[in-house]
Amino acid sequence: MGNWTTRRRIPNLLRFYKCRCLVAPFIAPLLRSWWLNRNGFVYNADLPRLCHDFINGSIGGNLGNLQKLAAEVGGNAADLASFCPQYLDVFNTGVHYSFIASVVMMLVSLIIFMTSKHLFPMPGKKEQVVVQEYTEEEKITMAKEIKQRMYALFAVLGISVFFWFSFHQNGQSLSFFARDFVKTDSVAPEVWQAVNPFFVIFLTPVIMWVFSYFTKKGKPLSTPKKIAYGMGIAGLAYLFLMALSMTMGYPSAETFRNISPELSSVMKVGPWVLILTYFLLTMAELFISPLGLSFVSKVAPKHLQGLCQGLWLGATAVGNILLWIGPWMYNKYSLWICWLVFALVCIISMSVMFGMVKWLERVTKS
């Protein structure tokens, strides 16, 4: 009963957390734009980069574009040497003000936690330790079982590293993609960070219903299978982006940013591309993130529960350390190559996971 309750509560708590993520991306751009407007400027996503290029002497063929945008946002296009530092100073100050949104929503999260902490599974009272004597055969059997459980745990942790490496591109290369290749003139690129929390909140009940449906039909999906399916769904998201990039003939982002604004605006795609991508990635997250924690709880030896939960978070950290690879490929290679790498990472991880499913299910039941 405890495990079932935990599995139900973890996704619901994830929804509480995502409520904060849903609101903050809308508030932060408003605060930044408010400060720009107060200083006589208008926000433009391309200007900070162009201003930095001008100051560094690497503006190249984008000088005309910089002059045009400077005039549009209310700056002095005839004196870029003064305008660029001034705009960057006001812009950066506005970004600092936008962090107020994060602080406020963290306080909201704290309030949510304090008012709903009774929903968390509470650790049971420690029972009095009874010293038991085991035979040598029993000790060998127990040691083998612990080794099998730890091997299974590390196998899933390895898969999770690649998932987080791919999934958290929503704050890296996918955000750059939203800025450079998607028609979002009326929407700040940061706002797209709210799409994933939105889908988490509204898809969680649907996914839980699907899992319950298969369970009632007598064909329950084991946690290893769910994780494998999640990797496959994440792979579909990147295969979609790869096919789109090949169809549109997208070069590297670095090359794309240097072409004329008239041509680049024609090549940009609609916001539906981001919505579909985040929809698939969020489904993958719901198949992996909360269920991975549940798997760790079931597989980890009782005396190593805390350590194993820490290892899960450590695997997430390792995946985040590798995030720099996404923007590097995004800027250096044709765009389809970047998405192909992430698709292959997800598909290979899914294949490895399916290859281990029977072993992992056996270890979980033991």
Q: What's the structural blueprint in terms of helices and strands?
A:
Blueprint: H1 2-38, H2 47-56, H3 63-72, H4 80-116, H5 136-167, H6 173-181, H7 195-216, H8 223-248, H9 253-257, H10 261-267, H11 272-299, H12 305-321, H13 325-332, H14 335-365
Description:
With 366 residues, this protein is mainly alpha-helical. It has two domains: 12-118, no CATH class; 144-366, MFS general substrate transporter like domains (Growth Hormone, Chain: A), CATH 1.20.1250.20. Helices cover 76% and strands 0% of the residues. The chain has helices at residues 2-38, 47-56, 63-72, 80-116, 136-167, 173-181, 195-216, 223-248, 253-257, 261-267, 272-299, 305-321, 325-332, 335-365. Mean pLDDT is 81; it is low at 1-9.
Descriptive keywords:
single chain, 366 residues, mainly alpha, Growth Hormone, Chain: A, 2 domains, elongated
Brief characterization of the structure:
The protein contains 14 helices and no strands.
